[in-house]
Amino acid sequence: MSAPAGSTTSAGRVVVGEAVRRRTFAVISHPDAGKSTLTEALALHARVIGQAGAVHGKAGRRSTVSDWMDMEKARGISITSAALQFAYRDAVVNLLDTPGHADFSEDTYRVLTAVDAAVMLIDAAKGLEAQTMKLFAVCKHRGIPVITVVNKWDRPGKAALELMDEVAERTGLTPTPLTWPVGLAGDFRGVLDRRDGSYRHFTRTAGGATVAPEEVFPAEAAAAREGDAWVQATEESELLTETGAEHDQELFLAGATTPVLFASAVSNFGVGQLLDVLVDLAPAPTARPDDQGSPHPLDAPFSAFVFKVQAGMDTGHRDRLAYIRVCSGVFERGMVVTNASTGRPFATKYAQQVFGRERETIETAYPGDVVGLVNAAALGVGDTLYADQPVTYPPVTTFAPEHFAIARAADTSKYKQFRKGIDTLAGEGVVQVLVSDRRGDGAPVFAVVGPMQFEVASHRMEHEFGARISLEPLPYRLARITDAASAGELSSARGAEVMRRPDGELLALFTDKWSLGVLVQNKPHLTLIPMVAAD
Ligand code: G4P
């Protein structure tokens, strides 16, 4: 790790020194690729310091730490995000969880606004799957460097070179494998370390429950030991070298290449190597650009932004937790900070890491760290918090919704509760709330990335705000940003409708790609801008 530099005060040097040690990342993958298994394996290799939020698991297999919502319990999944902090070598690693259920929601995307790097986890047999690609699109949009891990190499799967072609073709990133498997998928003996030509042989431990011992052999010994499997690995590695698939730190950080590792998370193979790569190659937090685009120095006084708000965790207390990512300075529990969007003070007396029901108080945090602020009723997603030196970070991107439904109060006498609930859910980013001028009744339209967001919203409207709702699904599946000039023409188009977001932005909604395609062809002058993660 490079030496901290640049700050003129000793307090500033401490902050920069701590920031340089941080690695804040998320795993992007399709359900079942092995994200939970990898998370557990990483924790096994490192010294876990704390968890903010819930660690998810699956019904009957691993216990779900969180039981914040009945729905989570019933389904055995976590709808909420978590941050796991651990120490590895000299580094402090923050692993932010991206909820991975098939119905994943905007929360999954939002986590990616708070990380500095991503690990793209691929199932060796399945290659790049739908959700991996969606999440990758967000990383690409944000310029987040991506490390690729091919998982489940202990099971039959695709050929390694075929997977590299797939990564290159579908992501546009040049894969630069750091290791190369010795033995085909299903016969994982170890890896050729392409950086020094050595062989790292893995030893299986019972059920992968402990750190898998690695033995390192020089090339000659590997050839004698593994025979044809070693020859094939070296030949393929040479082929990669000829095609220029060598790691280049600048190209990696610029989002042009992706280092690749081969692993078997369930057997703990390749997990230590991933941690080393994260520490050695993944970027530390850097000065985050403010809403004017100027980088806000790491050693400026404390600043952070809210990337997630979680409510209803404790129905008895109407609890609300806001997760912030520290961007500059030191967070010290108890400090009174300013919410840039309202100008109001916010006391951080209750700053916690949360372990399901058990909560541990956080005293200090540095750039890259995640803090859960309790009783955060006044905070919304995207809000900036600062101490002493005012700053505002750009709003958190809203992602392309794919499902839409009109929300109506089931009991019209509860209209006040209904409005309050809708405003709260919109502020928290549980759903996006649109208004259609065409529909005269002014009923809000919920727009979501995953249908489960509808369930969360309905559940909370009924149980938290006492306003049961009915949802009438709308047939739209695609959204594009448009302008007032185009909106007029779009309103008469078949299979399309224009709605307004609270920030005034106009969204054109379409039932399918076909109706959008026809319109683009017939009326190329219309403004139809894709949103992040729109396909
Ligand atoms: P997810 O969080 O990405 O959804 O995936 P998860 O870790 O839950 O893993 C999905 C399934 O894949 C699990 O099997 C898990 O054991 C298995 N798995 C994960 N990593 C590997 C690997 O490296 N090799 C092999 N062979 N399997 C792996 P399951 O049948 O759903 O559960 P279990 O009963 O096996 O635990």
UniProtKB/TrEMBL annotation:
Provide a Gene Ontology MF annotation, just one: translation release factor activity, codon specific
The Tr-type G domain covers 20-286
In terms of InterPro entries, this protein maps to:
EF-G-like_DII, EFG_III/V, G_TR_CS, P-loop_NTPase, PrfC, RF3_C, RF3_dom_3_sf, RF3_GTP-bd
Q: Where does GTP bind?
A: 97-101
Signal peptide position in this chain? none
Broad class of the protein's primary localization: cytoplasm
Task: List the record's Gene Ontology CC terms alphabetically.
Answer: cytosol
Q: Which domain of life is it from?
A: Bacteria
Q: Enumerate the subcellular locations listed in this protein's record, separating them with semicolons.
A: Cytoplasm
Task: State the Pfam families in the record.
Answer: EF-G_D2, GTP_EFTU, RF3_C
Purpose? Increases the formation of ribosomal termination complexes and stimulates activities of RF-1 and RF-2. It binds guanine nucleotides and has strong preference for UGA stop codons. It may interact directly with the ribosome. The stimulation of RF-1 and RF-2 is significantly reduced by GTP and GDP, but not by GMP.
Q: Which family does it belong to?
A: Belongs to the TRAFAC class translation factor GTPase superfamily. Classic translation factor GTPase family. PrfC subfamily.
What's the name of the protein? Peptide chain release factor 3
State the gene name recorded for this protein: prfC
